[in-house]
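Annex B. Sample input.
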Amino acid sequence: MTHLRSVLSLALSALSLCGIAKGKPQNQLTLFVGTYTQDSPSKGIYVYRFNQDTGNFSLRSSAKAGNPSFVALSPNGNRLYAVSEFNDGRQGAYSFDFDPKTGQLSNPIFVSTKAGDRFDDPENQPGSDPCNLYTDGKCLITANYSGGDISAFKLDKQGRLQGTAQQTRFRGRDSAAVSHIHCGLPTPDGKYFLATDLGNDRIHRFDFTPSGTEVLAQPTVAFEVKRGEGPRHITFDKGGRYLYLINELGGTCVVMRYNNDQLTEMQTLMADEGGGRGSADIHISPDGKFLYTSHRLKKDGIAIFAINPQTGLLTKVGYQQTGIHPRNFTITPNGKYLLVACRDDNAIQIFRRDARTGLLTNTGKRINLGKPVCLVLRKY
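Annex B, continued. Sample output.
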């Protein structure tokens, strides 16, 4: 019996060492990268293995797609969705099956976001330039920037795209404004869906019924920012009490309290340090203690804010310069690394994150590929 225990102990030790050498499963992530393919060496979507303990990475596979500038993963992690960001008839959305064992994307399905009648503006057609996705596994919703509208698709039981879109179009709030929908997400209570309108300086609210006949209904204005601020991306805190907005043109970050269907402004502060009018993305660290925003066109970088756990208010604690034209970024689940897609550097920069201060340190590690603009992580 003693001999058997010794053998088992040695075997377990060997397996443990093997796991350390290859990277423990809990430290292995899958990184999906959306890119621009137009005027770029990129061919579409790229799939990497990323170790969130060491920051090491390796390419697993790629899949052809046209301008998949934003990608999103299904809740079960077995489907990947991507936009096709065009305004010339090729605009639409893809769904792919994903095999975590092989890292392969397969069975692409493409559905056009160009639904409904032609509008009177030939350069502002329905579904043009989809730039953002949301999915809950039952529906897929695209924010269409040039179309000034939203497309909502039903998904089949396997999560694959089907049918034509339910289309909601927004007109300008006055003769000088043109609607540009940039992103959308549901409220924490699941009752509503919010969508930012950069052109109209508004956040729209819909009744949200993913399994209903109409996915989105009864649009209304939930919040208005100062004219010319250009609301772009939003995110909720873990508790669902506060909504954080980054304004692309104004470079400001707005903190709002969410209560049922009401958004109430609590704080507005400057995030951009270069005045580039190109603020882009916004995310909260997994521990909920820090908020990050990306900024382009001048003094490209990431602004860093500490979040007051009692009030949700922000205090700016740092600004980390990055490569050229940082767009989307993501933080590893363990909070150790922040990865930034720097479009015009043709690289993804990897920063180490200090969990105590929230500050970032450039590791010098880069994933080189053509025009990366969107990053999504999946547990391996």
